[in-house]
Each structure stands twice: as C-alpha cells, then as structure tokens.
Design brief:
The protein is an alpha/beta fold and 252 residues long. It has one domain (5-250): Aldolase class I (TIM Barrel), CATH 3.20.20.70. Helix content is 39%, strand content 16%. It has an 8-stranded parallel β-barrel, surrounded by 5 helices. α1 (17-30) packs parallel to α10 and α7 runs parallel beside α8. The protein is globular. The chain starts with a strand and ends with a helix. The relative contact order is 0.16. The structure holds 1,3-dihydroxyacetonephosphate (13P). The site of 1,3-dihydroxyacetonephosphate has 14 residues, from β8. 1,3-dihydroxyacetonephosphate is lined by residues 10, 96, 168, 173-174, 211-214, 232-236.
Length: 252
C-alpha cells in the first residue's frame, strides 16, 4: 500500500498559461528533491499539456479535474480516461462538490466515472462531503455513507490502490476556515470504517485526504490526525510559497 501522504492541488477554473508557468517553475524550485510525499497538480483541461511539459523530469503528477465514463464517441465536450492517459495525465478528480452542484453530477454518473477510469488505469480521487444543511440536521454520516456506497458500487478490491477518498465539507470550501479538528477526525474515522466494511478482504484501503480551507497554519494539525493521509488544497495551492510550505509541513 502507498503510505506516502498526498498533497493534491485543485486549481479549479483559475490560472492561465503565464501564471501556470511561473507557479509550476516556482514549485519545482521550492520542492526540489523532496521525497516521501505524493504531489499532484490539477489544472484545467487546456493546460494539462503545459503542466506535463513543465513537470516532465520531476515526481509531480498530473490530474484532470473531471473525466467522462465512455472511451470515445459522440459526447461533445467530454474527455475520456484513455485521452487523459495519452497526454500523460495519470489522475482524475471525480465528484467534486462544485460539479455535483453546478453540473448536476449524480452519484450514478460519478460511479460510472470511477469504474471506467480505474479500469483504464487512472488513479482517481473520489470527493465526498456534506452540505451545511446536512451537518446542521445531523445527516453528515448518512450523506457520506450514501456517497461512498453509491460512488464505489461495483468496484473490485484490486482497484482500491488506485483510489483516494477526498473528504471536503462543502460549507468550509473557500471560506478561509477549515472544519474543526474534531469534525475532520470523526468523519475521517467514519470513512475509514465504512470503506473497510465495504471491502472486508482488501489488502489495502484507499487513502483519505481532507480538503476545505487548508492553509499553512492548519495543515500540520490536520495531517497529524489518524486516518488523514494528506490534503486537497484549493486557494492556497495557487500561491507558490504557500503551496511549498504546505508540502514541506506535510512531509516533515
Ligand atoms: P479551498 O482550499 O479553496 O477551500 O478549496 C478546497 C477544494 O475545493 C479543493 O478541491
């Protein structure tokens, strides 16, 4: 099982080629020779090639922010797992709350993406998280459980090493204030137990990473928690100094 912590940068729909050039060169410089941590950058589709070129001789890996479940055909605007692999992109994000919200992605669509991407050989990060309303009405665990069961339906345990679960409480994303350590800890422990019960004979279970207003100040305490195997970073991942600082704090 891969025990490295994971730091995953989700740039969302931000950054153009010039910013990307400066940011990635800065990150390569700042994290020169770093080991014992997996670093994945997720630019928008048009910039995958540029980031691939910039990171060619490094250990940094590339992720798409989305993927489609079919391999080719009449699906205007979509990109398949094989196409991502073809351009050197080895990861895909699936089920981010912003796609569930704005693009109306359902757990069934997400499940198809998980199945076809893993079968094709991609690594994936399956994002789950509760809304503020679900937390307020004490439905957090029921909601997370539902997303896990429906998102991972039919997944063979041989694919689990390719899967990471990203826990992102929707109400703290972009807020500047991460969830409390208690809340993070209880949901991560819940996810671990839930996935363990879904795959009782699996040799290795997916890593579980936390996302939602991770910054240079809170990251150390977050990754010190049991069952937190890394972080999924939005805003702070687009600032070179902050991102490098986060990676260095995760690895130490
Ligand atoms: P922020 O770090 O900006 O809260 O974003 C989190 C996120 O959505 C990463 O996928």
């Amino acid at each position: 099982m891969n025990k490295n912590k994971l730091v995953f940068a989700n740039w969302k729909m931000n950054l153009h080629s010039e910013d990307i050039n400066t940011l990635v060169k800065g990150v390569l410089n700042g994290l020169n020779d770093i080991s014992g941590v997996d670093i994945v950058l997720a630019p928008t589709f048009p910039y995958l090639g540029i980031v691939k070129l910039l990171t060619a001789n490094s250990k940094i890996r590339l992720s798409a922010q989305n993927v489609f479940w079919e391999e080719s055909g009449s699906y205007t605007g979509e990109v398949s797992p094989g196409m991502l692999l073809d351009v050197g992109c080895t990861w895909a994000m699936i089920g981010h709350s912003e796609r569930r919200q704005h693009l109306l992605e359902t757990n069934e669509m997400i499940n198809k993406k998980v199945l076809s991407s893993t079968l094709k050989g991609l690594n994936i990060i399956l994002c789950v998280g509760e809304s503020f309303d679900q937390r307020r009405t004490k439905k957090t665990f029921a909601s997370i459980s539902d997303q896990l069961h429906r998102g991972l339906r039919g997944v063979g345990e041989e694919f689990l090493p390719q899967i990471v679960i990203g826990y992102e409480p929707i109400w703290v994303i972009g807020s500047g204030q991460a969830a409390s350590l208690n809340d993070i800890s209880s949901v991560h422990n819940f996810i671990f137990t839930e996935v363990e019960s879904m795959f009782p004979t699996a040799e290795s279970l997916p890593r579980i990473v936390y996302g939602g207003s991770v910054n240079t100040t809170n990251v150390e305490q977050i990754v010190d928690l049991d069952n937190v195997d890394g972080v999924l970073v939005g805003n702070a991942s687009m600032d070179c100094d902050k991102f490098c600082d986060i990676v260095l704090k995760v690895v130490k």
